[in-house]
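Newbie here. four chains, one complex. Structure please?
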Amino acid sequence: MTNLNNTDNLGSDIPVPEVVIQRLPLYVRVLMQFSSAGEKVISSEQLGTRLQMTPAQIRKDLSYFGRFGKQGRGYDVAMLERQLREILGLDRMWNAAVVGMGRLGRAVVSYPGFAPEGFKISAVFDTSNAIVGKTFSDLRVQSISQLTESVKELDIKIGIVTVPINHAQEVIDALVEAGIKSILNYAPLSPQVPEGVTVRGIDPVLSLQSMTYYIR
Amino acid sequence: MTNLNNTDNLGSDIPVPEVVIQRLPLYVRVLMQFSSAGEKVISSEQLGTRLQMTPAQIRKDLSYFGRFGKQGRGYDVAMLERQLREILGLDRMWNAAVVGMGRLGRAVVSYPGFAPEGFKISAVFDTSNAIVGKTFSDLRVQSISQLTESVKELDIKIGIVTVPINHAQEVIDALVEAGIKSILNYAPLSPQVPEGVTVRGIDPVLSLQSMTYYIR
DNA sequence: GTTTGTGAAGGATTTCACAGCA
DNA sequence: TGCTGTGAAATCCTTCACAAAC
């Protein structure tokens, strides 16, 4: 746990804080905006203004991974975007499976925002026999019993959980069992997962419930 | 009734850390589960197991607001839930407005998870004249020019943004202008908002983009 | 015996501030 | 001159550990 060599982050294997990793996609997004606005160069100041954070934090975050800027000038927009995408693993396509083909699952598979960012929904599943066999967005709904096989065959690395809360934990267990390490969970519960599995929750009610505290 | 004082170690009103506030709804959720399972008492250990966090953190979080437990026993489930709801402002109903009645907005207004938690969508808006006047889930779509008036009239405290990215900032500006202090933003951008306005983003792509870092 | 509440310690993250380079 | 990269300082957050309460 104790880290001795802190004179040089580069090339050493200090784990990068998770908060930092979660901010990198924000930087990528702003870089895309600047890029399509024709800007070639961006400063940490400009990035900070867009994201409402301090320039120092942005520079510090980037320094975990290398030296991307030029003093007196800033960062090359295209180059920094490319580097960050590579760091995050966004320079390739990822196959995802959606489990739960109710209303929410169907909304997710037809959401047009995933594909342009390299996330392809390659298979869909459901626990109910009433839905298995139907087709949505050109994807035939499979039984959850076929999960492990499909995950292997289609090189699926991401699971998206859109089942009702009462089935969510068992579905997550099945995904973990099938070797999935990254889960996007739309069910309103905090699932139990083993070490090494990352879960991110999409939970609008939780978000609302913490905002009301600040309304005075 | 509720003791809203901080611990007295530093004398006066340190604001409660935002991370703490964001965890309170998680506690409420587990308390509901325990309650409907017939459990009367819960320990910080049990809460921690459910949420995959340490008992000490839970006790510390709660200590910002008062002393709710009994040594040697734990917390009264019903009482703690009631107290936390009061602290968060969840002991009342909140009116919300949805702006953007495209596919996503229609999914949001018909989502059955908000009402049981006390969030009522009381008005819906759109920027496009092609949609204004139509009705979804018994709500007639209004022009955004009527926002300020409706917010006042219907006591709307929460704005939910479901417009496409190119209209999102202007819609958020309009909500802020109308006096809204809490915004749930489904558009994939980091909006600029003044101090005192809370924004929470619902952004599945961002979540995926930070998870891929950990897939090795 | 059990479990809370909490100062104090420890760790993590952010910000400062400035040397160094374009 | 302008802006990055980064040690050091400051701040924030979590965990420890134990007295007090039941």
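Moderator note: Chain B has two domains: 18-88, 94-207. The first helix of chain B runs from residue 18 to 36. Thread marked as resolved.
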